[in-house]
Amino acid sequence: MASVESAASEASAGIAVVGASLGGLRAAEQLRAAGWEGPVTVYGDEPHRPYNRPPLSKEVLAGEATAAATALRHRPSIDDVTWRLGAAVESADLTARTLTLADGSVHAYEGLVAATGVRPRRLPLPGGPPRHVVRTLEDSVALRAELGDGVRVLVIGAGFIGCEVAATARKVGCEVTVVAPEAEPMTLAVGEELGRALRRRHEARGVRFRMGRLVAELGDECAVLDDGSECAADVVVEAVGSLPNVEWLGASEGGTPGLGPDLTDGILCDAHLRIGGLPHAVAVGDVARFPNPRYGALARRVEHWSMPADCARHAARVLVAGLRGEAHGLAPFAPLPSFWSDQFDLRVQSFGLPGVGDRAELLEGDAESVEGDVVYGYYGGERLVGVVALGGSKAVALAGRYRADLMELPDGLDLSPSWGSLPAL
Ligand SMILES: Cc1cc2nc3c(=O)[nH]c(=O)nc-3n(C[C@H](O)[C@H](O)[C@H](O)COP(=O)(O)OP(=O)(O)OC[C@H]3O[C@@H](n4cnc5c(N)ncnc54)[C@H](O)[C@@H]3O)c2cc1C
Question: What is the DSSP letter of 389?
């Protein structure tokens, strides 16, 4: 039987952070900022210290930046943190407060931060040309090795990663086709109107699109689409969404008998990022599903680079207060989501949650042109819930002009600390 290295009740057990990427790193820093002086151990299944993923579909894939350049710097306050890298956490017991690693060892903790992010969804199709995804450094380096002048790249999926990979592959000389079922690229994130403007700009730079189509079959050097047409390909990139890494918590023996945390599309948290309302367990980053009072009570995951840091600032204070048996006194977590995406010389900059709007309005620019900046506003009723700018270097400033409007909370919202509570496990 595996031995428990120390009892959870011992003060030395400290806080365990599961996931050694952006969310894990920011959580460790924010625990120190929140006054936690005890041990912090970060467990990560990748062999690397935290690195930055955005360059993996851009500069690293283009060969303009090295893998080493993606390393994330950390604050000196976490110089003493223990990093357990190449150490996958296989299960957690939320009652006994222990983690079991893939090597069978059992580790006690007092407080838990779940920061395990997501992994790429894979296409359930056999065969085909060499197939890639882009999530890790290794993924990006392996795809980079296949790209070059005249290489026929088929990108399946037209979300932000699909569009970024298409742009980068085209930049380095590939013949690129994007296939996706939606009417326009990036529809989920930015709506059809801005998606159309984006597609036209990609097409002007040589990317081909087969929108409204699915891949039915993969042959040796081609894909067969659902209308029977063929699309030649030397390399296939699957960019068809992500799956949250929650299985290790699914094996949890803690909580209400027979009931662990709700792991439907991520780890369900309350409005303070506590897992199942527990005072000693929080989740941050891509894997966390939480209600944001700006957009109603529905809990959502938000896969944006800014989110792990925003989550960590709130969750660390809540967790440290919870471990001390104190009230945290914070209003519910209500971040303003934001993301950017660089494709060719284009920047897409979003603030808010355009996807919760019921209509989009062109606020600035000429949507028909393939040059110049355009800005769309997304409205839920009369309320502005998101703004996206598409353009060059000015896109951030253009979208940023609407930030103050987007920061306004819905009228009559009562933000007591108990808003968005979950029944405790
Ligand atoms: C190619 C790419 C480009 C991107 N570009 C942009 C962009 O331009 N703009 C933007 O806003 N966002 C971008 N993003 C999104 C952004 O990088 C993510 O939102 C961010 O990485 C989320 O950080 P995280 O720590 O929550 O999750 P992750 O970065 O996914 O980290 C989770 C970590 O936990 C590890 N892990 C999982 N399960 C276990 C386990 N059981 N035990 C131990 N460790 C485990 C994982 O291997 C991983 O290392 C991009 C993402 C990718 C992949």
Answer: E
| Sign for the pseudo-dihedral over CA of 409, 412, 418, 420 | negative
Phi/psi at 144 (5° precision): -50, -40
User: Structural domain boundaries of the chain?
Assistant: 11-119+243-323, 122-240, 345-407
Gap between the Cα atoms of 74 and 71, Å rounded = 10
Distance 255 CA to ligand 1 centre (A): 27
- Band (pLDDT 50/70/90 cuts) for residue 7 is very low
Is 343 a pocket residue for ligand 1 (Cβ < 6 Å)? no
Q: What is the tens place of the pLDDT at every residue in 115-170? A: 999 999 999 999 999 999 999 999 999 999 999 999 999 999 999 999 999 999 99
For domain 345-407, the question of CATH label 2.70.98.60 is answered with: no
User: Hey, is 162 helix, strand or coil?
Assistant: helix
The answer, yes or no, to whether residue 349 has pLDDT greater than 50, is yes
What atom in ligand 1 is closest to the CA of residue 303?
19
**Residue 201: both structure tokens together:** 């700009």
Structure tokens at 379: 């409205």
Q: What is residue 180's predicted lDDT score, i.e. its pLDDT? A: 98
Q: Which helix (H) or strand (E) holds 292?
A: none
Cβ count within 10 A of residue 191: 20
Which residue's CA is the closest to the ligand 1 atom numbered 20? 305
379 Cβ below 6 A of ligand 1: no
